[in-house]
Amino acid sequence: MRTSKGKTAFCFPGQLQERPRLEDHPRLIEDPHFKECLARASHQTKFDLLNFSLKRDGEEAGLNLKLQISTYLLSMIHFYRMRAAGWTPDIFAEHSMGIYAALAAAEAVTFEEGLFITESIGGLLEREGTFHRGAMASIIGLPLEEVQKICLDLDSYQLFIANYNGSMQYVLSGEEEGIKEAICIALSRKAISGKQLSFQTALHSPSLSSLREEITNLLKEVQVQSPKFPIINHWTIKPLKREEIKDFLSREIGRPVYWARCVERMLQEGVTQAVEIGHEATLTKLIRWMNRDVEAFSAGDGLREKG
Amino acid sequence: MLQPNDHLIEKIKHLILQRLKLADMTPEMIETDAPLFGEGLGLDSIDALELVLGLEKEFGVIIPDAEVGKKVFQSVRTMAQYVLEQQKAT
């Protein structure tokens, strides 16, 4: 593997959209970090990542919460694996609920606190999805102005752009019926793809701002430290300060994710290598879309030796 | 239906590897008739946009919408057939 001349970013992805197929990754399952993380998690949560990943039946109760915990655990496992293999990041970036693992990896919170935050906020979202069902959709291949116009054309539904993932890569959030209509309109206006995501809440939209107080309350138990690695705050495009973290966590589910800004900031910082600290390669592909010179790959693709 | 030759099939495979930065793969590892999405090569809609751009840059052909994209991106062969059809039409 070639040695990177610039900086290395570790990028923490948001929630998985489907069960991770861990049976396809026997090396990962046998990895000591995998076993240790699952053992630590088992003291705190009834959720069993391995059993969850092996189930192949259809929908089940609490699927999104389980996917959120899976995402957190897999990010932490891959983070420990990469560190053990000699990788040292210069900077962290995170997408949506990837912030929980990013904070734990940067030791701003402990592994256990990160899991507690993931499970607690995930539980709030689960409840919200039951009483105020929402939805999300990825719209790919339309310019921003066109996506904004779709939101305006369907203004009776309160639709919002939830993720700014790069040019022609957006995620909408809002009422489920409106999201379904938005997909139809987007496809009729020549989108390359319009797809409803697994979420049952209107994540990253103002409708979830109502959860802020409850999140603030549950975070009272968490002792936040200064992050050991700078984590880009995608609203300010500056490193997240210790004193900002709880406020960020309480607000972020009600505000959009500006991933494209994060990538731009990483490039300005001299990042030439971006490692997705997760099981899939969504952020890797979004980085590739924005800049083809960055060497981007997912830790989930297999463990690389540090060059 | 127009049948693409081996040279065009090879070019399409190179385009996929290059656009999607599949550094660990070779053209021989991509089956000409295997599905590109889902259970096949495992591509997704972000990859689709890369391929749309790649076809336009490399061959000057345009995928106008998702419906056409769905048909074109079934396999390497359908991509090559679409390139041939579009080139013949112009």
Explain what this protein looks like in three dimensions.
The complex is a heterodimer of chains A (307) and B (90). Chain A contains 12 helices and 10 strands. Chain A starts with 6 loop residues before the first strand and ends in a 9-residue tail after the last strand. Chain A folds into 2 domains: 222 residues, 3-Layer(aba) Sandwich (Malonyl-Coenzyme A Acyl Carrier Protein, domain 2), CATH 3.40.366.10; 63 residues, Alpha-Beta Plaits, CATH 3.30.70. The two termini of chain B are 17 Å apart. In chain B, α1 packs across α4. Chain B contains 4 helices and no strands. Chain B has a single domain, classed as ACP-like (Non-ribosomal Peptide Synthetase Peptidyl Carrier Protein, Chain A), CATH 1.10.1200.10. The longest helix of chain B has 15 residues. Chain B has 90 residues and is an all-alpha fold.
Report the CATH superfamily of chain B: ACP-like
The spatial strand order of the largest sheet of chain A comes to 2-1-9-10
> CATH topology of chain B, anyone?
Non-ribosomal Peptide Synthetase Peptidyl Carrier Protein, Chain A
Count of beta strands of chain A: 10
Could you name the key traits of this structure?
heterodimer; A: 307 residues; Malonyl-Coenzyme A Acyl Carrier Protein, domain 2; Alpha-Beta Plaits; 12 helices; B: 90 residues; mainly alpha; 56% helix
Helices and strands, with pairings:
The complex is a heterodimer of chains A (307) and B (90).
Chain A: E1 7-12, H1 26-30, H2 32-42, H3 49-54, H4 63-84, E2 91-94, H5 98-105, H6 111-131, E3 134-140, H7 144-153, E4 160-164, E5 169-175, H8 176-188, E6 193-196, H9 212-218, E7 232-233, E8 238-239, H10 245-252, H11 259-268, E9 271-276, H12 282-290, E10 295-298
Parallel strand pairs in A: 1-2, 1-9, 9-10
Antiparallel strand pairs in A: 3-5, 3-6, 4-5, 7-8
Helix pairs in contact in A: 2-4, 4-5, 4-6, 5-6, 9-10
Chain B: H1 6-19, H2 45-59, H3 66-72, H4 76-89
Helix pairs in contact in B: 1-4
